[in-house]
Write a structure and sequence with these properties.
This protein has seven helices and ten strands. It is an alpha+beta fold and about 290 residues long. Strands 1-6-7-5 form a four-stranded antiparallel β-sheet, covered by helices on one side. A four-stranded antiparallel β-sheet has the order 2-3-4-8, covered by helices on one side. A two-stranded antiparallel ribbon has the order 9-10. Strand 2 and strand 3 form a beta hairpin. The protein is globular and about 55 Å long. About 40% of the residues are buried. It binds a DNA duplex (16 and 16 nucleotides) through loops.
Length: about 290
DNA sequence: CACTTGACCTGTCCGC
DNA sequence: TGCGGACAGGTCAAGT
C-alpha cells in the first residue's frame, strides 16, 4: 500500500482526529509488530497526550507529551484507523469504507484513548511495525539517517533530483527511483505512473537518462504524487485512510494495473513486465528502450 | 561501494 | 474441490 501519498493522507487524517487525545491503554497481539518492552509502554505511552502527527518518507511519526514518538511503518498492508466510541461500522457505513468492525483478525496493536475512542494498527502481512522511541532519537534511526529528500518540498529542485541519481548510475531507473536513499516516498505505483508521464522506459539505465528527461521525471513525480494526495491516495486492496475509507487515485492511474487496456496517450495496449523484480506497467510505444 | 536476490508474512487467484 | 505456485503497496540482510 502505502507510498508517500497514502502515508500523507493517513497523517492528515490522524492530525485532525487524535491530537489532544490522552492514551489510556495499549495492547499488542504480535511482538514483531510492536517490539517495545511493556514497561516502556507503561512509562512513556499510558497517560501521554498526542501532541503532533508528522510524516517522513513513508514513515508516520506520532509525538507524545512524554517526549517519546511512535514511529510507524505500514509497509505493504498496514492500516491506522481511528474509531470514535460513537462510530458504528456495518449497517449504513459509507460504501467507500473497507472496514466493517474493529478489531479484526488483522489488528496487531490497539491504542485506547480516554473517553473511549481507539486507534487500530491493522496489518495482514505483519511486515509493518510500530516503535516507541525518544523524540530526539528519531532522526538517528538508521532509516532516517539514510533516506533521501522529500520530493514534494517547495525548495526541492530538478537539478537536486537529478543529482541524487548519480549514486545509482549503473542500475535501472525503476530500481533507482524506488530506492528510498535516492528520493523519499516513491513506491511501485507512483514509479510506474511517473515513468509513463515522463515517457521513460523503466529498464533504461540511469546513466543513459538525459538532463531534460530527469527534469520531466521530476515534474511528473511531483505532479502525480500531489494529485494522489488530493485524491486521498490509491487503494489496491487494503489501503484505507485514518477513517477507514479507500483512496480515489486509482481511477486516475494511467498504467498501474491497467495491462490490456489502451494507453490514454497513444492508444496502444499497456503491458505488464518485470523490472528490478517488481511488476511494472508500461506503454511499449510511449516508453521505448 | 554498487547492485541483485531472497526473506519476512498472509491471503488470493489461477492453472491443473 | 483441492493443491501448488506465483504474486501483492516495502524494506533489509546477505550474497556477488
Amino acid at each position: 500500500m502505502p507510498e508517500l501519498p497514502e502515508v500523507e493522507t493517513v497523517k492528515r487524517g490522524l492530525h485532525k482526529l487524535i491530537i489532544g487525545h490522552k492514551i489510556s491503554a495499549v495492547s499488542n497481539d504480535n511482538p514483531k509488530s510492536f517490539p517495545n518492552a511493556l514497561n516502556d509502554v507503561a512509562q512513556f505511552m499510558v497517560n501521554a497526550n498526542i501532541i503532533d502527527v508528522r510524516r517522513r518518507a513513508k514513515v508516520l511519526l506520532i509525538d507524545l507529551s512524554t517526549k517519546y514518538t511512535l514511529v510507524i511503518h505500514l509497509k505493504m498492508t498496514g492500516q491506522l484507523v481511528f474509531v470514535n466510541k460513537l462510530d458504528r461500522f456495518g449497517a449504513g457505513h459509507p460504501s467507500s469504507s473497507l472496514i466493517n468492525e474493529l478489531p479484526d483478525k488483522s489488528t496487531r496493536v490497539i491504542i485506547d484513548f480516554k473517553g473511549g475512542s481507539h486507534l487500530y494498527f491493522n496489518d495482514q502481512r505483519k511486515f509493518g511495525w510500530v516503535r516507541l522511541i525518544p523524540t530526539l532519537e528519531v532522526s538517528n534511526m538508521s532509516f532516517m539517517m539514510k533516506v533521501g529528500p522529500e520530493p514534494l518540498e517547495a525548495d526541492f529542485t530538478a537539478s537536486e533530483f537529478a543529482n541524487r541519481f548519480k549514486r545509482r548510475a549503473r542500475t535501472t531507473i525503476k530500481a533507482a527511483i524506488l530506492d528510498q536513499t535516492v528520493i523519499a516516498g516513491v513506491g511501485n505505483i507512483y514509479a510506474d505512473e511517473s515513468l509513463w508521464g515522463a515517457k521513460i522506459h523503466p529498464s533504461r539505465l540511469v546513466n543513459t537518462i538525459t538532463k531534460s528527461e530527469f527534469t520531466e521525471l521530476y515534474k511528473q513525480v511531483r505532479l502525480i504524487m500531489n494529485l494522489a494526495i488530493e485524491k486521498g491516495g490509491s487503494t489496491i486492496i487494503d489501503y484505507v485512510n485514518a477513517e477507514g475509507k479507500k483512496g480515489g487515485y486509482m481511477s486516475f492511474a494511467r498504467v498501474f494495473r491497467r495491462e490490456g487496456l489502451a494507453c490514454s496517450r497513444c492508444g496502444n495496449e499497456i503491458i505488464k513486465i518485470k523490472v528490478a523484480s517488481r511488476g511494472t506497467h508500461i506503454c511499449p510505444y510511449c516508453q521505448q528502450l
